[in-house]
Amino acid sequence: MNSTLSTNYHLTQKVKDEQFDIDRISYYHLSLQVGTTRMRFCIHDLQKNRCLWLEDYTLAPQESAEMQLPQVQAIFESHHILQAGFWKEISISFLNRKFSLIPASLFQDDHLAAYLRPIASVDSNTEQILHFKHIGADITNVFPAPYAYTQWFKAKYPNKTLRLVHNTSALIEAALRNSEPASNTKKMFLCIEESHVSILVTRGKVLEFCNVFPYSNDADFIYFVMFVMDELKMNPDSDMVILWGELMPNSPIYEKLYRYIRNVQFGNRPSMLSFGYQFDEQLDHRYYDLFCVHLCK
């Protein structure tokens, strides 16, 4: 392992509930999220539906997943909790822009590469094409994941069946849970990261749109949001927009967003989980996608 690369990570957030009990790990769900510049994890008690642990790391950007992996390995090697192998469930979410949503009626297991070909280049030597079926939404999310990560995680937890999903799958499950079943009104959800935004639109319990857009400035961000609203004939004066992720209430993006959209608000924490006082300093809308990875079953 390259010692220089392996130490280029930084812990930016840690919250631990005093109710965490290492003797109860067999009742806990471990959710991991890996992207090009982030690795996050949270732990929640499946019996009590209580979030017990959260950590967020920034990773130094690398040219490939193989070069980035030593940083993640170093985090694991220095973390006695992540070394544990007797979790009840483990889910791993891959945070990237490569994915394709296929209607359930059209999905075929032997066409995975073809589904991705129009929207993303996939290197068959370094990437494994995976898929996750959203039973309630009647769609399948097809996405590539780096072999370096999938093989390493499987070797790390050899006695567990890992749930490997794309980050948009957690957002889809979350958005549908936050939509009213009988409503004919469209609702937009934005999950913001430092350099990209995931945009989802629902109408009742139907997913009408899901995509991930890169942005480098405020103007790009506003353009993509307004473009989607216009394409889907949403009303910026009345239709609701929910914000999740890495956006602060005093940020220029939020201020500009509010100029164009009147019914915009930050999301609350997932209602299916409880949180102790240790999480009080965390903004409710942050880490929503991570908290909802376990919904992908």
TrEMBL record:
Return the InterPro entries for the record: DUF3822
Q: Which Gene3D superfamilies match?
A: 3.30.420.250, 3.30.420.260
Q: Which CDD domains match?
A: ASKHA_ATPase_BT3980-like
Q: Tell me the Pfam families matching this sequence.
A: DUF3822
Know the name of this protein? DUF3822 family protein
